[in-house]
Specification:
Elements (H helix, E strand, L loop, with lengths): L13 E5 L15 H6 L1 H6 L4 E4 L27 H13 L3 E6 L9 H7 L13 E2 L22 E3 L9 E3 L14 H17 L3 E4 L25 H4 L8 H20 L6 E4 L7 H7 L7 E4 L1 H4 L4 H18 L4 E3 L8 H4 L25 H15 L5 E5 L20 H5 L51 H5 L5 H16 L7 E3 L5 E6 L2 E6 L5 E2 L11 E5 L10 E2 L3 E6 L1
Parallel strand pairs: 1-2, 1-11, 2-3, 3-7, 7-8, 8-9, 9-10, 10-11
Antiparallel strand pairs: 4-6, 5-6, 12-13, 13-14, 14-18, 15-17, 16-18
The structure holds alpha-D-glucopyranose and calcium ion.
Length: about 575
């Protein structure tokens, strides 16, 4: 059923990242669900989307919103049932939209039956061998087995109850509710093979594979070298040479790829893929290692998501992934937003639009002060207009298409991200980009997020929505001419008409100070990163016979040959 193109579908797909909890709530309990997704498939299709990547929707106690999986073979009760899932998948297929799931290999939940069994079993038992259980150091083993730090703050080890148990510790790269799985264990290997089969059988076309950097550890678990004081609380994990980007991880990914290939061998009509998630900005050797032909088909290129709004940085962020494409044939998977990162409108709305090159940039030092949201939204549109032109696939994050900003107005006691608690509030966490979507301007239904219950009542959304959220809703922006939504819809069409038809390659073109230029076949794209309009030199050799086909600022009237401030334009030549 997959269309026959010269390239596998994922190489230039437009993919919509759907954070189910915050997308649409069909039964008024304040939590998004599968029926909510079904009710809004038309909107997703209107963007020209090829696939939806669903954030984890497996049964989970939600300590890290589904990234703590209690059962890999079912659907979380609040979201629906497997039958609901199957129906959603079939309905998406009617819109020619494929479904990708989120696979969490590094850890499961403390509620997973294996972890419960491990706690009930003695040290050295097969039940414990699926995880990293170790004796502590020091007197009575009261010190953690090593000095590793969790990516969510605090030690990467938690001691199990000393009174009832034996006082061993277990490792968790993330929250304590997310015990790490040991993939050298045969049960763990078999589990993931079974997961692939189970979801491929249901019609899922691939997986976004979570947090690959920390899966596979140095077998001896040695202490990590001391880190400088300037290392952020979360970075400490990712510079640990015994935990991050280990060669042992690649053995796991080869096994995963074998599982996928075996499935395809038995079902040759299927085109299945895996995209790896890790923060490898400015580290092309890492992307190359993960996308070797026997591992992932794709890995996220977060470069443009992490770049400041500045010509040379944008150029490098664009060209590094393209250089990899040239060398290896593996096309970039571009992203401007996801559920872990402050929304692009807010990031680029700061005067200096500075983004630290850390895997998380949600901390409070990036304050809400000095954010010009209108400016940020223009730059976000300009950035989108750049990635829509580039070779590779695009991952949009829900709400990006209506220009949602980061939400800062969440009371401390309503914050849910474990990062907030584990760092004692030092890191504000990621809730601000996960606030339930506004679909209408109707406050009584949480701005259209919730469909009322049978008695007409609506429970408040699981994360509070800020004042004015309804003015940013789909309905509200749909009524505005030249809105971000218009620009995204147009970009979807422009991309099919003028970008994906071009060769899978692009090269920089120099147009002058503050301008980022790129040529892809007969398409020429120019970003004006400055605060003023710039008159282009239309005699430039790249612009011979050029016809303007798109501007990210359709509402800004400019003289022909002039590119508005903080905007991107497309020419065909
Ligand atoms: C990835 C996910 C993030 C999650 C973490 C642990 O980075 O994107 O949301 O908290 O892995 O699974
Ligand atoms: Ca619901």
């Amino acid at each position: 059923m997959t269309e026959q193109t010269s390239r596998p579908w994922w190489q230039d797909a437009l993919i919509y990242q759907l954070y189910i909890r915050s997308f649409a709530d069909s039964n008024g309990d304040g939590v998004g669900d599968i029926a909510g997704i079904r009710s809004r498939l038309g909107h997703i299709a209107s963007l020209g989307v090829d696939a939806i990547w669903l954030n984890p929707c497996y049964p989970s106690p939600q300590h890290d919103h589904g990234y703590d999986v209690a059962n890999y073979f079912d659907i979380h009760g609040e979201y629906g049932t497997l039958e609901d899932f199957d129906e959603m998948l079939a309905e998406a297929a009617e819109h020619n939209i494929k479904i990708l799931m989120d696979l969490v290999p590094g850890h499961c939940s403390i509620d997973h039956r294996w972890f419960i069994a491990a706690l009930a079993s003695p040290p050295g038992s097969p039940e414990r061998a699926r995880f990293y259980f170790r004796d502590g150091k020091g007197e009575n083993g009261s010190e953690p087995p090593n000095n590793w730090q969790s990516a969510f703050g605090g030690p990467a080890w938690t001691r199990i109850n000393e009174d009832e148990n034996d006082g061993q510790w277990y490792m968790h790269t993330f929250a304590r509710e997310q015990p790490d799985l040991d993939h050298t264990n045969a049960d763990v290997q078999q589990l993931f093979d079974d997961i692939f089969t189970f979801w491929f059988d249901r019609g899922v076309e691939g997986f976004r594979v979570d947090a690959v950097a920390g899966v596979g550890k140095h077998p001896d678990l040695p202490d990590q070298p001391p880190v400088g004081d300037d290392a952020g609380v979360l970075d400490v994990t990712w510079i640990n040479p015994y935990l991050a980007f280990r060669p042992e991880g690649h053995d796991i990914w080869r096994r995963f790829r074998t599982s996928v290939e075996n499935y395809v061998d038995a079902h040759p009509e299927r085109e299945l893929m895996m995209v790896a998630e890790a923060y490898a900005v400015r580290r092309p050797e890492i992307i190359k290692a993960f996308t070797e032909p026997d591992q992932f088909q794709q890995m996220f290129s977060f470069d443009l998501m992490m770049t400041p709004w500045e010509k040379t940085s944008i150029e490098r962020a664009m060209l590094d992934p393209i250089a990899i494409l040239r060398e290896t044939g593996v096309a970039p998977a571009w992203t401007l937003n996801n559920h872990d990162i402050q929304r692009v409108v807010t990031r680029l709305g700061r005067a200096d639009a500075h983004v630290p090159e850390s895997w998380t940039n949600n901390n409070l030092s990036l304050s809400r002060a000095d954010v010009d949201l209108e400016l940020g939204e223009r730059r976000a549109r300009a950035m989108a207009a750049l990635i829509f032109a580039l070779p590779g696939s695009l991952y949009l994050y829900q709400g990006e298409e209506i220009g949602l900003p980061e939400v800062f107005d969440i009371p401390d006691d309503r914050r849910e991200d474990p990062v907030f608690d584990r760092t004692n509030g030092e890191e504000i966490g990621r809730d601000g980009c996960r606030v339930p979507l506004p679909w209408t301007n109707d406050a009584a239904t949480s701005y259209g997020f919730s469909t009322p219950q049978a008695d007409g009542s609506v429970d408040g959304p699981w994360l509070p929505q800020p004042a004015g959220w309804g003015e940013r809703s789909l309905d509200s922006v749909e009524a505005i001419e030249n809105s971000t939504l218009d620009v995204y819809r147009t970009l979807g069409q422009m991309r099919s008409a003028h970008a994906v038809t071009q060769p899978q390659d692009a090269e920089p073109v120099e147009f002058g100070a503050g301008l980022v230029g790129v040529r892809r076949g007969s398409l020429v794209v120019i970003v004006n990163s400055t605060m003023a309009p710039i008159e282009l030199d239309m005699t430039h050799e790249a612009l011979g016979g050029a016809e303007l086909v798109f501007t990210s600022e359709p509402g800004v009237a400019t003289a022909p040959g002039t590119i508005p401030a903080n905007a991107t334009i497309w020419f065909t030549t």
